[in-house]
Amino acid sequence: MPHDEPTAPTDGPRDLDARRDRDDRRDREAARRDGRPLPDDDIRARVQQVGVQQQRFERHLARALDVDAAGLEAMDHLISHGQSTPTELARRLEISTAAMTLVLNRLESAGHVTRERHPSDGRKLVVTAAERSSDRAYDLVLPLIEGIEDVVAGMDATERATVQAFLDRLIGIYDDAMD
Description:
- It is built from seven helices and two strands; from the N terminus they run αααααββαα.
- The protein is mainly alpha-helical.
- α3 (69-81) crosses α5 and α4 packs across α5.
- It is elongated.
- The mean pLDDT is 87.
């Protein structure tokens, strides 16, 4: 009767690529943790760092305004797009209307929003960002906006076109990943 011994895995091209990808990922993770500079050609790690920095900035903003993540997202929508109904906000944040009510209760208690009857449909409420909170949020975000505008202003037309094409493709990848 033959004895089946486990055989050692063979390293085909796919196995080597997968191992290189894992090693590369571990190296980038280590560089981020210990502050080592990233290689000049590591765009993927830089894109990841932009995402991490965006999340850190949002947490900073939420702490400064004393709101939670859902409250910050609701305020962002109200400040950017103007007043809204609670149902519209719930759809925008992809949460239930009951959860939105809790978010709005917290925001209203903190003085960040007001709720009033809809002018043409008394059954509905309209939520508006408080001017003081909008001004505070704008003051906190302004350095980021100005910094990005300065970076873009320092680019020539070719650099702008390259960055725009890259970002458009990157946005498409995110869209495809959510389909």
